[in-house]
Amino acid sequence: MTSTGLTALAPTPISGDSMTAPEIFGVLSASQGAEILNWLANHDRPAYRNCASMLATRRKLRPVFVERKPRDEKNQWMQDALTRPANADLALEILQVWTLGNNLAMVSEFLDALAISHDGKGLIDQIPSEPPAEKVKSAVESLLANHGVFHVFVYLHLFAGMDEEGWLTLKDLLATHPALAPITLAKAA
Question: Which residues lie closer than 8 Å to 9 by C-beta, 6 or more apart?
Answer without folding.
Answer: 89
